[in-house]
Write a structure and sequence with these properties.
The protein contains 17 helices and 19 strands. The protein is an alpha/beta fold. The protein has an 8-stranded mixed sheet with strand order 8-7-6-9-10-12-11-13, with helices on both faces. Strands 1-3-2 form a 3-stranded antiparallel sheet. A 3-stranded antiparallel sheet has the order 18-14-19. A hairpin with a 2-residue loop joins strand 2 and strand 3. The longest helix is centred in the N-terminal third of the chain and has 17 residues. The radius of gyration is 26 Å and the shape is elongated. The structure holds S-adenosylmethionine (SAM).
C-alpha cells in the first residue's frame, strides 16, 4: 500500500473516472435500482449482470467496486497503478488490491476490499470502507463553519471529505497506520489538500490541542475481545465510547462541538439513560444523546459476525456462543446504537438530554442540530418568570392532530406533530393546544394565559404555575421557540 501516489496520478485517475461516469449517480444509473439495492446488501450478482458489457464504466465498477478481474479499460494507467500496489496484473487481466468507490461528496474513498461470504478471513488491521454508519455521522455533523476540526478514527478518511470546505484546518487520526495510508489516497483522489494525518490512540496524537469540531465514528462494537481494529478498540465493553465522551471536552475550544456515533450496553436493573447520561455528567458541556436503535444480544452478535463474513465458517458457532456467554456474564439485555453530541456552551449550568428517537428524521440533521442544542440549553436555563414574560411562537412546521369518538364535543387526545426536522410528536393538554393556536411571537405568555383563563374558566393563578411546566418540554423539543422580535 503506497503512502502517496505519484503527483500527477490522482488527478489523472479522477479525470478518467469522471469521463467514464464513475460517480455516485453514474453507478446508480448504470446498475439500476434492483442491482444497486442488492449491492447495498453486499449481494453482487445483480451488479455483475448489469456490468457484463465490458464498456469503460462497467469495467471500472467491476474492477474497483465489485473486486473482480477485468480487461483494463482503455485509458487506465495500469503500469503506474501496479507500481503503486493498487492493482495486480495477470495474463492481461487487472485486479484491484483495494476498494475504491465514488462518494456522495463528489470525491472517492479507498479502503480494503469488502469481505463477502467465502472470502479469506479479515486481517486484524482491515480498513473498512465508507458505509451506512459513515453516512449517518456525516449527516449528523453540524454544518456550521469550523476553524479547526478533528476526525478521530478516520479509517478510509471519509469524514474528512465531508469536513473539507467547512473547516479551515483538519487533523485526522487513527491507531492503524494502514488506515492513514488509505485515507491519504482517498483525499488525494478527491482533491482534498492540507489534511494532517496522525497516528495514535484516542486523543494521544492531539495532546494539548483544541478544536472547534471533533467528529468520530469510533470502533464502537462491543465484543468479548478486540479482534478487528476497524470496529473494536480492545477497551472493556463500551469503555471506548465512554472515554471518548469523557475526554472530548478537554480538546474542545470554547463554543466547540463534539459529535460521535456510539454503542452502549443495556444491563439488567440499570436504565441505559443513566449509563450514557453518566458518561456526560461532569463534562461541563451541554449534551444530547439519542438512541436510534436497540438490538438484543443475539441480533447484535449475528450482525457483527456477518459483517466480518464469518457466517458459515467453522468457527461461527464458537464465536457466537462466546459472544453470548460474555454478554450473559454481564447481564446484558440489549445494545443501543445512537448519536452523542457535546457542546461547550460555556454555561455554569450545563444540561444533558438523553432520549430515544425511532422515527425517520429529516436529513441531514447537521442542518439543524445547532438549533436543537440551543433549544435544549436555553430552555433549561430559563426561569419560570422569564418564560411567562417571553413571546413564544409556535414552530412553522407544527401540525395538530385531534383524535376522539365521533360526535364527541372534546377530543380524547391532542397531539402536536412536527412535519420537519426530528419529526417529534407530543401529546398535549388543552392549554398547550390553545397556546399553539395563538402563540405567534406578538404577545408575552402571561396575558395569553389570562385570556385562556377567562375563556375556559380555569384559575389564572393555577395556569401561571402549570403552563411553564407543560411548555418547557415543548420548548426544549422545538415545538415553540422564543421570538426575538
Ligand atoms: C468504524 S471505523 C470509522 C472509519 C471512518 N471514520 C468512517 O466514518 O467510516 C473506526 C476507526 O477507528 C480506528 N480506531 C480503532 N481503535 C482506535 C483507537 N484506539 N484510537 C483511534 N482510532 C482507533 C480504526 O482503525 C478505524 O479506522
Amino acid at each position: 500500500m503506497p503512502d502517496h501516489l505519484p503527483g500527477h496520478l490522482p488527478g489523472r485517475l479522477r479525470e478518467l473516472f469522471l469521463d467514464a461516469g464513475y460517480t455516485v449517480d453514474g453507478v446508480r444509473e448504470r446498475l439500476g435500482d434492483v442491482a444497486a439495492t442488492a449491492l447495498a446488501r453486499e449481494e453482487t450478482v445483480p451488479a455483475l449482470r448489469a456490468t457484463r458489457d465490458g464498456d469503460p464504466l462497467g469495467a471500472l465498477i467491476r474492477l474497483w467496486w465489485l473486486g473482480v478481474p477485468v480487461e483494463a479499460p482503455g485509458r487506465l494507467p495500469v503500469d503506474e497503478l501496479a507500481a503503486a500496489g493498487l492493482v495486480t496484473v495477470d495474463g492481461g487481466l487487472v485486479t484491484s488490491t483495494v476498494h475504491l468507490q465514488p462518494w456522495e461528496t463528489g470525491g472517492y474513498v479507498v479502503s480494503d476490499r469488502k469481505v463477502r461470504p467465502g472470502d479469506p478471513a479479515l486481517r486484524e488491521d482491515h480498513v473498512v470502507g465508507a458505509g451506512g454508519a459513515s453516512a449517518n455521522l456525516a449527516q449528523l455533523v453540524s454544518r456550521r463553519p469550523a476553524g479547526r476540526a478533528l476526525d478521530l478514527g478516520t479509517g478510509c478518511g471519509v469524514q474528512v471529505l465531508h469536513l473539507a470546505g467547512r473547516a479551515e484546518r483538519i487533523v485526522a487520526t487513527d491507531v492503524n497506520p494502514r488506515a492513514l495510508r488509505m485515507a491519504r489516497l482517498s483525499w488525494a483522489l478527491s482533491g482534498v489538500d492540507g489534511v494532517e494525518a496522525r497516528e495514535g490512540s484516542l486523543f494521544d496524537p492531539v495532546a494539548g490541542e483544541r478544536f472547534d469540531l471533533v467528529v468520530s465514528n469510533p470502533p464502537f462494537v462491543i465484543s468479548p475481545r478486540g479482534r478487528f481494529t476497524y470496529r473494536e478498540s480492545g477497551f472493556e465493553a463500551d469503555g471506548f465510547c465512554r472515554d471518548l465522551v469523557r475526554l472530548a471536552p478537554r480538546f474542545l475550544s470554547p463554543g466547540g462541538t463534539c459529535q460521535l456515533l456510539a454503542n452502549w450496553l443495556h444491563v439488567g436493573g440499570e436504565d441505559w439513560r443513566d449509563r450514557v447520561g453518566g458518561w456526560l455528567a461532569g463534562t461541563g458541556c451541554d449534551g444530547w444523546v439519542v438512541q436510534r436503535d436497540v438490538q438484543d444480544p443475539a441480533e447484535y452478535a449475528e450482525l457483527w459476525l456477518r459483517d466480518a463474513a464469518e457466517q458459515g465458517t467453522p468457527r461461527y458457532r464458537e464465536l457466537y456462543d462466546d459472544w453470548l456467554g460474555w454478554f450473559e456474564s454481564m447481564n446484558v439485555t440489549g445494545i443501543g446504537f445512537g448519536w452523542i453530541t457535546l457542546h461547550d456552551s460555556g454555561s455554569l449550568d450545563p444540561v444533558v438530554r438523553v432520549e430515544e428517537l425511532g422515527q425517520r428524521v429529516e436529513l441531514p440533521v447537521g442542518e439543524y442540530v445547532d438549533e436543537v442544542l440551543a433549544a435544549i440549553g436555553a430552555t433549561h436555563r430559563l426561569t419560570d418568570e422569564e418564560l411567562l414574560g417571553a413571546r413564544l411562537a409556535v414552530a412553522g412546521d407544527v401540525m395538530e392532530e385531534r383524535v376522539g369518538t365521533p360526535g364527541a364535543e372534546d377530543p380524547s387526545r391532542i397531539v402536536l406533530r412536527q412535519t420537519r426536522g426530528l419529526r417529534r410528536g407530543a401529546r398535549v393538554g388543552t392549554v398547550e393546544a390553545a397556546l399553539a393556536g395563538v402563540c405567534d411571537g406578538d404577545y408575552p405568555l402571561e396575558p395569553l394565559l389570562a385570556a385562556i383563563a377567562e375563556l375556559t374558566g380555569e384559575s389564572f393563578d393555577d395556569l401561571r404555575v402549570k403552563a411553564p411546566e407543560g411548555l418547557r418540554p415543548l420548548l426544549a423539543e422545538g415545538f415553540f421557540h422564543i421570538s426575538q422580535g
